[in-house]
Design goal:
Elements lengths: L41 E5 L5 E4 L4 E3 L13 E2 L8 E7 L1 H14 L4 H11 L16 E8 L15 E4 L14 H11 L8 E3 L3 E3 L3 E6 L7 E7 L4 E15 L5 E4 L4 E3 L6 E2 L14 E4 L8 E15 L11 E12 L7
Amino acid sequence: MHAVTGRAVRATVIVGCSMIFMGTTPAWAGFTPGGGKSESQVEGKSDPKGDISASAGGVVIDRSQNGTGASVGPVAPAANWTPPACWYAPTYTPAQFKKEREAAWVVDSTGSQWDTEQRKRYVEGEPYKNFNLDKAGKGYWWTSYPNESYPPGWDACDKETFWVGTGEPPPADAPQAVTPEILAQLAYAEIRVPGTKVELAPQAVTKVNLPTWAWLDQAEFKPVSVTASVPVLNIQATTTATPVSLKIEPGTTDAQLHPASGECPINADGSIGTPYTKGSGNKTPPCGLTYLRASADAPYKLQATITWKIHWTGTGIAGQQPLPDGTFGSTQDITVQEIQAINR
């Protein structure tokens, strides 16, 4: 459904963004086929005849390799970064655009002046003739897509619906036209990583001056990715988040971290830290902490934060515009008790 106010406006499912990214314009001719996926978590599609069906802001989003579970969430970019506020993408074949625009004119909800201007632009040859029906299969009509959260800049893509022929670049006055770089950013906005509840020994309740071991198992700690594509253009980008380190914050200044920085690097096998084994109670853990004061009336809030390395690849490009790394963490309650001495 379209609410026409001088131009078509569509709702999208892409979330969270606030500025326009001016991506490098690729060489549009000669793209190799993109990898638009068909798994159940893919939103939007285009059929083999080239007709465009409803999609996420003109972009197909594949989340099948994303993080799962009740505790997943988006990474917080380490740099001051936000994804595109709006973009242009293919929306209609000539027949689809004719059907959409004529339906608006029949309803007469847009006003005679706007209808007349639209007919001149798309039917009477100023600059297009009869919706370019004679060019069916040779290009698409492009429109603008604002981010659904409508951040600052969402209305900057204010160019009227325009035609782009197959193999031709979008017009120079549409710098927000979708590219692999923009797709990589839209995919980044959809990345979800699992929560970071670390294994602890002792668990939940520990003692003053007793080393507490912390670790994350390799099986629960792996890269996640999202792919964004525009199948009718044969372009795509996959953004991947890979866990690289764990940072521990004890929830109090009365604690000693192991290592002192609180940063536990990832091991060669993909795990972090070392699981506690019997007899290691008085040893210094490679990843963990030692509380120096009891938690008294309320438990300490131990914060465990994973740093995720972000990289992307796209059609014909290998990450020319880097994306910032991100973090995601969670808190755990830790009760710290005094060791009771018995005098005889």
